[in-house]
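User: Batch of two.

Assistant: Item 1 of 2:
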Amino acid sequence: LVLVCAPPSPGACAATYYEAMEKMGIPKREILVSRVEKARDAQAEAKTEFTDALSRFLELTRVEPGEIETVYRQLAGELEDCEARATEVRDRIQAIEDVSEALFDEWRDEAASITDSADRRESERLLRETRARSVTLLRTMRTAADRMDPILTKFRDKVLVLKANLNAQAVAGLSGTATALEADVSRLVADMERAIQEAESFLAGLQ
C-alpha cells in the first residue's frame, strides 16, 4: 500500500500514505524534514547543473568549426540534464507543501484538544511560527525554481538552432545569448543559495 501511494500524491492517496507511515513510527514531522533535506539537495544539484551547462554553452562560442557538432551534442545533453533537474526541484517543492499542509492540519486539531489554556496557546504559537517559516521557505524555493524557466527556454532555443545549423554562422549568433545567460545563471545561483540557506534555517527551527 505504501509503495502504491508513495509521495508526492494528492488527496486520499497521500492521506493513506501518511497514515501508513505513522503506523510504521514515522510521523509527518519526520517526513517533512526528509523532504526539505531532499529539496535542498536538489536545488544544490540544480545550481551545479545549470552552471555546468553555461560553461558548455560558453565553450561552444569559442570552438573551431570542426568541433561544433561534438560540443553541440554535449550541450544537448546538458540541456536534458537541466530539464530533468528542474522537474525534480519542482516535484520536491510540491512534496514539501503536501506534507506541510497535512502536518499543520493535524497540529491545529491537536492544539485545539489541549485542555490547559497555557499549553494550548503555546502549541498554537509554535504552529503559527512554523507555518510562517514554511511559507517563507516555499516562496524562496519557488522563486529560485522560477529562475530556471527563462534559462531553459534560451538553452532550448539555441540547441534547436544549432541542431538545424551546425555551422560557424549559427555559433556566431550565440555570443549575445551567452552574455544574457551568464547574468541569468548568476541570479539563479544567488536565488538557489538563498533557498538552500532558508532550508537550513527551517530545519534548524524544527529541531
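Item 2 of 2:
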Amino acid sequence: MNFSILVNILGAVIALAACLMSYRLGRRSEFAVAEWMREVRSWAEKAIGELSHATYAVMDEECTAQDRHSFARNISALVEVGRFYFPNQSVDYGRNKPLAYQGLRHAALDPLVAAVRVLNKGTDSEVDVSRVLYELRREFVSLVFNVLGPAHHNRMIGRMIRESHLSRRNDSTVGGLVPSDDSVPPGADYLLRSIIGRLRSEEDGA
C-alpha cells in the first residue's frame, strides 16, 4: 500500500477517534452539570420549605421559642450542606478556621444565615419577624434563580419539544412554557376574581 494513502487513512482514523472522544467528554460534562443542578434544586427546595414554614409559624401566637429554635436548627444544617455547592470565596480571611469556613461566605447562603439569626435573636426592631423571614426567602429564591437560570433552561426545553413533536413546530411559546417578551401574565388577583366570579355564576345557575 502506498505510504501516503496509509498516512491519510491513519489521519482519518485519529480524527474520527478524536471526534468520538470529544463527543463523549461533552456528554459527560452535560450529565455532570445536569446532576449538579438537580442537587442544587433539591437542596434549595428544602431550604425554601423551611423558610416558608418558619415564616407562617411565627405568625401564630402559639409558636414557642422551642419551635423557632427547631426551624433555626434545620436551616442551619441546610447552610452547612449548602457549602458543598456554594463554597466560601477564597480570600485572605479566616485562615485559622477549618477548611470549609476559610474565606468569605458565598452570597447564596447569606439569606439562610440571616434567617437563623432572626429566629434565634429576633430583629432588634419593630419590624415583624415573619415579614423579615418572608423577604429573606425572596432574596434566597432570587439568588438561586440567578444561578440555575430556569428561563434559559425552559428555552432549551421548548426548543427540544418543538424539534421532537411535529404538532408543536409552530407553537413558539410551547403552550406558554416560553412566553413571548411582550406578553403580560394575568396575575393572581385577576385569576382569583375570575374563579370567584365563575363559582358565583355556577351557584346562581344551580
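The chain has a mean pLDDT of 85.
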